[in-house]
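Allow me, if you will, to draw on your knowledge of protein folds for a short while. A protein sequence and the structure tokens that stand for its backbone fold form the material at issue. I would ask you to consider whether the tokens describe a fold that such a sequence might reasonably adopt. Thank you for your consideration; the sequence and its tokens are set out here:
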Amino acid sequence: MNSPQLTVYLKGSDYGRIRKLTNFEKHHHEPDHFSDAALRFVRRIGHAEVKKSAELLYREIRRQFAYKRCDFDYICENGYASIKTPDFEIEKSIDQGIEVSKPKNYCINTLVNLIDTIGNHRDERFIDCFNDHCDQVIVVFPQIIDLSSKIDQIEAIEEFANYLDYAPDASSFDLKLSDQDLHINFTEMHMSFRLLTYPNLKKLLEHSQKAFDILTKKSDIISID
């Protein structure tokens, strides 16, 4: 899963009530709708959570990989943190929850850009660092893909046909592979992998790579022609 045409990263999200954030005070009010002002408020009072999480992760990466200070590029401000190392980059940010019906929630996202290769699943140091932070593998296509044709191709693959579900207008589709404990979602811009059961980063990376290899070989899923 390390084609130069693709962008591959890990993602994890933690949700909670805005009033539970460390710097939420008695005179504050949880937002009852989504707005730029509400987002600025959440990022301001939620910065402490982002900072604490980023600093703990920084120390764990340093311990596991024995990087020196000069190996890091670290930024933490306004509800956002960035940690760059020689092998990967991490971003943490807090936002207002993404569900339209839940404006009183926050979401802390963690993104890990795999600069090197998805083969990091063989590195126990990497797994130890990010197992508790990430539960999805995201593969971004270089261009918009034709989902209708991809659905037709996948329906012709015996291993996947019975596990395929898609929107009537072919705007997205899913594969739920119970034997691989894997849920794959496709949009015209990316594909995402997550386990159907409990989070396990090593298992997720291994099973994602296997499914990706089959899809690439048999349906040419990353073709943009």
